[in-house]
Amino acid sequence: MQGWPAPLSDEDLTRINFSLRGLENIQAGHRLMPPRPPITLQMLTALRLTLKIGRSFDACIWAMALSAFWGMMRFGEVSVKSTNTFDGNLHLKRCDIYFDADLDGNPYARLDLPSAKTAKAGKRALRNLFQVVPAQANDPLFSWVDDKGNVHPMVKQTAIKFINGILTEWGWGTSSRHSFRIGGASYFLAQKVDPEIIHIASQWKSLAYETYIHAFKLSASRHMSNIAERAL
Questions:
Q1: CB–CB of 67/126 below 8 Å?
Q2: What is the pLDDT of residues 99-109, one digit of tens each?
Q3: Domain total for the chain?
Q4: TM spans, by residue (predicted)?
Q5: Among residues 69, 68, 48, which one has the least CA distance to residue 58?
Q6: Partners of 107 in the beta sheet?
Q7: Which domain holds residue 115?
Q8: Sequence-distant (≥ 6) Cβ neighbours of residue 27 within 8 angstroms
Q9: What is the DSSP letter of 121?
């Protein structure tokens, strides 16, 4: 299949086995990890019904969730490790977002990371965040305001813990920092978007991308099995 002429010689087999051992070492850390569960549209609906997006903290969580899902972003791209680690040269700021329209006239929001991401469906959540959380151009994009009026960047673990608390109350298991990105990719795959388009849009490395495809297949199989069981 790979163009090796038959019959294979001992030298050929040695070269092939050498390559296979190298591939095994490269993929070992990826293939042994169980695929992470994706965030689904039902989960996003539950999140929206629970959040009070007129409050700054909730508005920030909602904007982060939709941006990470529809933009297939790493959760670390919409949050910081701790309040004191915000760096305007590394993290998204208010001035890094642009509202525009695509070639069909549909509005979208563009977040200028080191690589651009789009979040058309999260546009309303981002505009709501701008209204609820007054901040300056160089303040963190995903931020909230305390009772004293101080602006704080959203910390990753704080956001994940808060979201998981809501999802648990609704009867789902906990999510991970990759679940929104996987969920967005799973949704687009289900809508028959070309996998290569998803790959390019999210700028994944190939091995990580294959892992997300695998997670989607497992999730789809589980939901299809549940439908089949109810039909019996």
A1: yes
A2: 888 888 888 88
A3: 1
A4: none
A5: 48
A6: 101
A7: 51-167
A8: 207
A9: G
Longest dimension (CA), the chain: 77
Q: Which is it for the CA torsion 66, 71, 72, 73, positive or negative?
A: negative
Q: What's this model's pTM, rounded to 2 decimal places? A: 0.71
- The pLDDT tens digits for 150-207 are 999 999 999 999 999 999 999 987 888 778 988 888 888 878 888 777 777 776 655 5
Residue the block writes with tokens 């648990």: 168
Round to whole Å and give the CA distance between 68 and 76. Answer: 9
Distance CA 53, CA 43 (A): 16
User: Looking at the domain assignment, is residue 86 inside a domain?
Assistant: yes
**Contact criterion met (CB below 8 Å) for 98 and 152:** no
Average model confidence (pLDDT) for the chain? 81
Domain membership flag for residue 212: no
pLDDT at 232: 41
Strands (E), 102-174: 107-112, 116-118, 143-145, 151-153
Please check whether residue 106 lies inside any domain of the structure. yes
pLDDT at residue 231 in the model: 44
For residue 30, being part of any structural domain is answered with: no
> Are the CB atoms for 56 and 134 separated by under 8 Å?
no
